[in-house]
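Researcher: I'd like a structural prediction for the single chain below. Treat it as a standalone chain; there are no partners to consider.
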Amino acid sequence: MFVAIILSLMGLFLIYLEFFLPGSIFAIGGSVLLLTSLFFLVVEKVKIFHFIVYALILVLLVLMVIKLALKKLKANKDIFLNSDQEGYRASNFKKDLIGKDGIASTDLRPAGKIFINEKSYFAITRENYIEKGKK
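Model: Treating it as a single chain, here is the predicted structure.
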């Protein structure tokens, strides 16, 4: 019984680590240790009632570990960037081409390539779809 408890505690710790060092290695290792601890209970011929109680306690402990880890993750706001990137431009475009008519060289769904004055440009339409060759 002692070995099963130690294995389950190690498994819970590995699952807890998975939240902070993602990659599924710790989660798989923790799950294997939890299942191994259940296997040790079966080998030791523990009564079925004790086995079920132990399994339910393990499930509750896993849920508590997940809840604790999620609370710590919420407190840590470093998951995504909260500030703007200074000087970043999403795209370069020629302002003198805005509003000009061209011919679609590819289907525009809503983005694609167009020809204006025999030059190819990347364009985004205000509509959803323009077929190739349309003006």
